[in-house]
Design goal:
- Strand 1 and strand 2 form a beta hairpin.
- Among the domains are: 96 residues; 67 residues, no CATH class.
- By secondary structure, it is an all-alpha fold.
- It starts with 13 loop residues before the first helix and ends in a 13-residue tail after the last helix.
- 47% of the residues lie in helices and 2% in strands.
């Protein structure tokens, strides 16, 4: 059902008006029924979510394994958010209400994050009434959290060889820098990234290999294990190896 319509565009025929009204009422009832069904589904999901939370904070004998519980909570929260989004699509008033709540409770982004300012100026600075130049009297500013995906790059180390034209057999070249993995491809930063993902984020090596493969970098699990091998076995004391 549209939010607004042009009164002047309505037909004069009472029968057509009556049919249009019946259609609008039916659409409204369908939207309400769909919204009620989604709300009922959300209530069921929230009930399950509360039960899982009780498992998390209940007696030790009743608790679920941490990873299983986190997966269940994430799936339920995603399902609730999906149902909420569908409800907002069907009900403009509900969408407006929840948008206002999100703006009021989202908080401020950390000050240390870099800011990239995007200015959306009007296409014309001329007054639409008299064509005189207009001046800025203020601006509305909003912030959104953006992310730059991890970028892999190749460090090319070039070691020029210098030879003397006068002295035969004299060649000077800087020695190759030491590598954490002798004969291997990774830099120290790459090894650190793999280890943080493995031990701090609990991301298995086979999944990291899949992430690299999506970038066209074919490194198998055994190779990643060889990269991690030269480093301390438990680099993060708060994480299990």
């Amino acid at each position: 059902m549209p939010d607004a319509f042009d009164i002047a565009a309505l037909p004069d025929d009472p029968a057509i008006l009556r049919a249009l009204l019946i259609e609008m009422v039916a659409e409204r009832d369908d939207a309400r029924a769909a919204r009620d069904a989604l709300e009922a589904q959300n209530d069921r999901l929230r009930h399950i979510l509360l039960k899982l939370q009780r498992h998390q904070f209940g007696r030790k004998s009743e608790r679920l394994p941490e990873e299983q519980l986190e997966l269940g909570l994430a799936d339920l929260e995603t399902a609730i958010a999906t149902a909420d989004a569908e409800a907002e699509k069907r009900d403009p008033d509900l969408r407006k209400e929840r948008t206002a709540k999100r703006r009021a409770s989202r908080g401020a982004l950390p000050a240390h994050l870099p800011r990239i300012e995007v200015v959306l100026a009007p296409e014309s600075t001329a007054c639409p009434c008299c064509a005189a130049a207009m001046m800025e009297i203020g601006a509305d500013t909003s912030e959104r959290l953006d992310v730059i995906p991890a970028q892999f790059r190749v460090i090319v180390t070039k070691r020029p060889k210098l030879a003397c034209r006068s002295c035969a057999g004299v060649v000077v070249q800087r020695p190759a820098p030491a590598r954490l993995v002798e004969g291997g491809l990774p830099t120290e930063a790459t090894v650190a990234h793999v280890m943080v993902s493995r031990y701090a984020d609990h991301l298995p090596l086979y999944r990291q290999a899949g992430i690299l493969a999506r970038q066209g970098i074919l490194v198998d699990r055994a190779t990643l294990a060889a990269w991690v091998g030269p480093a301390p076995p438990r680099p993060f004391p708060w994480c299990a190896a």
